[in-house]
Amino acid sequence: MDIAIVGAGAAGAGVAYALREADATVTVFEKSRGVGGRAATRRKHGCRYDHGANYVKANEDRVTDLVGSTLGTDGLVDVEEPVWTFDASGTIEEGRESDEHKWTYEAGITQLAKRLFAHTDATVELETRVGAIEREGEGWTLADVDGADLGTFDRLVLTPPAPQTAALLDATAWDHDLRNELREAVEAVDYRTVYSVLLHYDFELDRPWYALVNTDKEHDLGWLSREECKPGHVPAGESLLVAQMAPEWSRERYDDDPEVVKEDVADVVTALLGDERLATPDWTDRQGWRYALPEGGLEGDAHRRCAGHGLYVAGDWVVGEGRVGRALACGLDVGERLR
Ligand SMILES: Cc1cc2nc3c(=O)[nH]c(=O)nc-3n(C[C@H](O)[C@H](O)[C@H](O)COP(=O)(O)OP(=O)(O)OC[C@H]3O[C@@H](n4cnc5c(N)ncnc54)[C@H](O)[C@@H]3O)c2cc1C
């Protein structure tokens, strides 16, 4: 049995992991240079930072078992400092105590997908963007965006965010009503956009919290966290703030000059924390996540009926919750069904 998985994020890694002992040849196609998808890590100037998902929550027993034990706890980080809140007026308050884990790795959150794949024999083809799909007999033939043949597979699992999966279904030659039915259901899943800006300072920022979250959703800033709370990420005596802007702000400013956007974000952070030093970071970085978090989940049962034809979907948008743990669990489910 030849199985193709499109996308090497948490969901794709979950599918491959669940198939690790199956009698199947698994090939994963990933358009980026590395695995992890939106659970992403970058390195710059001696710092390592998670610029997409900040941490994995243990929201399911399976995920707790995997992250907290099976995949290895060497280099596992559980952020201990709390998450506080702020509102539209910029009032910061102590958040509710939570005993949930906030897991990442010293080497960054991409470790999660790397460790999952390391348990498998799957072949991961990086920098390979699937651009076309064709139903051939009982199989699925894939081609990259330049039309190069990527092979024919008995089963196909699509895990890109819903709008990208919808585009792939658009580029699928399959003369069956289910193709349109599934595409319409996938197209209906909206995503929120998040613009992430990284602000680095060569001094320590002494605060009692790891992160601040905007609870009334009325502030331009949605989330602010201190990457130095994750061991192995920021050298001692430095500070690296991760600012994730609110969806509306992010959408409006998405195509603006990045330098201007970063300056504006530094001003928002300076005002919130009331510390003038924060207006002039010594270096910055940024990432626009056009498809950051799904607004809802996949409706209907077209995707279940597609499984009868060897076509599957997995990802945070299938379950309707933008969480690494949920995407992973969804991938595990699909992998188990395939097995
Ligand atoms: C800024 C931000 C902050 C977040 N914070 C948190 C958090 O703190 N905690 C949390 O649990 N979750 C958080 N999330 C959500 C979390 O990152 C996602 O829910 C989860 O990573 C989704 O995993 P996935 O596998 O479904 O999708 P993805 O990670 O998006 O994986 C899909 C993969 O498919 C690839 N792909 C797309 N199209 C193609 C193609 N045509 N060919 C080949 N490959 C393709 C993509 O490159 C990607 O690697 C955050 C997300 C963002 C953007």
UniProtKB/TrEMBL annotation:
<protein>
    <submittedName>
        <fullName>NAD(P)/FAD-dependent oxidoreductase</fullName>
    </submittedName>
</protein>
<dbReference type="InterPro" id="IPR036188">
    <property type="entry name" value="FAD/NAD-bd_sf"/>
</dbReference>
<dbReference type="Pfam" id="PF13450">
    <property type="entry name" value="NAD_binding_8"/>
</dbReference>
<dbReference type="InterPro" id="IPR002937">
    <property type="entry name" value="Amino_oxidase"/>
</dbReference>
<feature type="domain" description="Amine oxidase">
    <location>
        <begin position="102"/>
        <end position="332"/>
    </location>
</feature>
<dbReference type="Pfam" id="PF01593">
    <property type="entry name" value="Amino_oxidase"/>
</dbReference>
